[in-house]
C-alpha cells in the first residue's frame, strides 16, 4: 500500500477528507460550468523559481504603525502617476481569485486623495450609514469625487507596493487607532477599521457574481488577511451599512478598471515535458531530493492498467470477482498526462503525475502570470513505481481523482479545490 510523505505545500495531507470521484453530475455540476474533455492542449513554459506556499513562507516582519495622524482640519495627499501592481499572488492567504486579479500591472495618472475618511477631519468620526450614491453626492459637494478602487489600492499600497497599508503584515493596533496608521503615501486608516465605498463596479461573472459596487478595506474585527490592500468585496450599492465609510479623491478620475475572470474549460491537457517538470521540482526545497530521473507514465497503456487493476481485484473468498469491481464514472476520462485545471474563474492549476526511480508522485502547482508557478500541494507514493492516473470529469469543477488502482482503498483518492481556495490531495 502506498504511503504518503508530510505535506510540502498549502495543506497538511490527511486521508479520508475528500469523498470518492464517482459522484453524479447532478451532485457536482456548478453554475456557469462548461463541459471539458481535456482537449485544446496548452504548452506551459515555466519561468524562474517556483514560489513557496504561503503557509511555508517565513513570517513577514510586523508592520510598524506610521505616524500619520494629521492636525485638525482637512488634508489632501498628492499621489504621483505611476504603475500599480493590482491584486495579489495566487495562493496568498485570504485571496479570492474570482475577485482579486493576479498581479495586474496598471498605469495610473496622478490624483489627490483625502488623508482621512469623509469628512476628512481627524476631530470628527468618519461618516457611515450612507449609500454609495449619497457618498458620491457628498464628495461632489466637497469639490471632489469618490475614489476609484484602483486609486484606493495605490494609495493603500504606497510607493513600495506593500500588501498592507504601511507594511508587509497587518498590525492589529491599527484597528484600535486607525488615525495612527498611514500608508506609504501618508493616507490614514486605509483597511484599518471600516470598509469604504469606491466609484468602481465589480463586473459580473455568469451565474456566479452579479454586477455590484466595489468596496475596499475591512472592519476592525475582520481577520488579518481581510485588511490587505488588494482585498475586494462586492456589495449592493443601495445598502447603507454602519461599517461602510468613504473618502474623496480629486482631479480627473483614472479610467482603468479590474476585469472579472470568466469560466474557462475545466480541464485541458498541458504539453509540458519531464525535464521541465524536473526543473520545477528542483526549485521546491521539499521536493528537490525526490531522486532519480523524472519520467511520465505511458498514455493510454498505463491509464488502462490502473483501471484494469481495479477491475481484477479479488473477491473476499480469493476467487476473481464475477463482475468488474471498478470502472470510471460516466463522463470521466483517465489520463497520465499533465493537466491544466480551472476549478473557479481566475484560478489555474497545473497537475502532474510521474515517477522518479521507484517513487510515484502527484504535484499541483498554481499558475501565476508570466508562466511562473507556486507550489499548491503534493503527494509522494514511496516505493510505489505506479503507474498512477488522473480521472477527470468536465462536469465536476472542483475535483479530480487519482489512482494506482482505480477506486481501490488505499490506492486512490482525490485532488480537491476547497471553498477556502486551497488545493488538497487526499488518499482514500
TrEMBL record:
Task: List membrane-spanning regions.
Answer: none
Biased amino acid composition, Basic and acidic residues? 26-37
The residues forming the signal peptide are 1-20
Name the UniProt key words of this record, in alphabetical order: Signal
Q: Which domain of life is it from?
A: Bacteria
Q: Gene3D superfamilies annotated for this entry?
A: paralog of FGE (formylglycine-generating enzyme)
SUPFAM superfamilies, from UniProt? C-type lectin-like (SSF56436)
Q: Where is the composition biased (Low complexity)?
A: 38-48, 56-74, 315-325
Residue ranges for the region (Disordered) are 22-74, 313-334
Pfam families given for it? FGE-sulfatase (PF03781)
Q: Which residues form the Sulfatase-modifying factor enzyme-like domain?
A: 120-171
Q: What PROSITE patterns does the entry give?
A: PROKAR_LIPOPROTEIN
Q: What is this protein called?
A: Secreted protein
Amino acid at each position: 500500500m502506498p504511503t504518503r510523505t508530510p505535506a510540502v505545500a498549502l495543506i497538511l495531507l490527511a486521508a479520508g477528507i475528500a469523498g470518492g470521484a464517482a459522484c453524479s453530475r447532478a451532485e457536482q455540476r456548478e453554475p456557469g460550468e462548461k463541459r471539458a474533455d481535456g482537449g485544446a492542449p496548452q504548452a506551459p513554459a515555466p519561468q524562474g523559481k517556483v514560489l513557496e506556499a504561503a503557509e511555508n513562507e517565513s513570517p513577514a516582519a510586523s508592520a510598524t504603525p506610521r505616524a500619520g495622524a494629521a492636525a485638525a482640519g482637512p488634508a489632501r495627499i498628492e499621489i504621483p502617476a505611476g504603475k500599480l501592481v493590482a491584486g495579489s499572488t495566487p495562493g496568498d492567504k485570504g485571496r479570492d481569485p474570482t475577485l482579486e486579479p493576479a498581479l495586474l500591472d496598471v498605469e495610473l495618472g496622478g490624483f489627490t486623495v483625502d488623508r482621512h475618511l469623509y469628512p476628512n477631519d481627524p476631530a470628527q468620526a468618519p461618516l457611515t450609514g450612507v449609500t454609495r450614491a449619497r457618498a458620491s453626492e457628498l464628495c461632489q459637494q466637497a469639490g471632489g469625487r469618490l475614489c476609484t478602487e484602483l486609486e484606493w489600492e495605490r494609495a493603500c499600497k504606497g510607493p513600495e507596493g506593500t500588501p498592507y497599508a504601511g507594511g508587509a503584515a497587518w498590525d492589529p493596533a491599527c484597528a484600535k487607532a486607525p488615525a495612527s496608521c498611514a500608508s506609504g503615501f501618508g493616507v490614514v486608516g486605509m483597511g484599518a477599521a471600516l470598509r469604504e465605498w469606491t466609484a468602481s463596479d465589480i463586473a459580473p461573472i455568469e451565474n456566479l457574481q452579479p454586477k455590484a459596487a466595489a468596496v475596499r478595506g475591512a472592519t476592525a474585527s475582520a481577520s488579518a488577511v481581510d485588511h490587505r490592500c488588494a482585498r475586494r468585496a462586492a456589495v449592493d450599492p443601495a445598502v447603507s451599512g454602519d461599517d461602510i465609510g468613504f473618502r474623496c479623491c480629486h482631479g480627473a478620475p483614472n479610467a482603468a478598471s479590474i476585469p472579472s475572470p470568466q469560466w474557462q474549460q475545466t480541464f485541458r491537457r498541458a504539453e509540458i515535458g519531464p525535464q521541465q517538470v524536473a526543473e520545477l521540482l528542483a526549485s521546491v526545497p521539499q521536493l528537490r531530493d525526490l531522486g532519480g530521473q523524472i519520467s511520465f507514465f505511458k498514455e493510454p497503456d498505463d491509464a488502462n492498467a490502473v483501471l484494469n487493476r481495479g477491475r481484477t481485484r479479488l473477491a473476499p473468498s480469493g476467487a476473481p470477482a464475477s463482475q468488474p469491481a471498478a470502472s470510471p464514472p460516466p463522463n470521466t476520462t483517465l489520463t497520465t498526462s499533465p493537466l491544466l485545471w480551472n476549478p473557479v474563474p481566475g484560478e489555474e492549476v497545473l497537475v502532474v503525475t510521474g515517477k522518479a526511480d521507484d517513487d510515484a508522485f502527484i504535484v499541483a502547482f498554481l499558475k501565476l502570470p508570466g508562466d511562473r508557478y507556486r507550489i499548491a500541494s503534493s503527494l509522494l507514493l514511496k516505493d510505489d513505481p505506479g503507474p498512477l492516473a488522473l480521472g477527470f470529469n468536465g462536469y465536476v469543477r472542483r475535483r479530480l481523482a487519482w489512482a494506482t488502482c482505480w477506486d481501490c482503498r488505499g490506492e486512490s483518492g482525490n485532488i480537491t479545490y476547497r471553498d477556502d481556495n486551497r488545493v488538497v490531495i487526499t488518499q482514500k
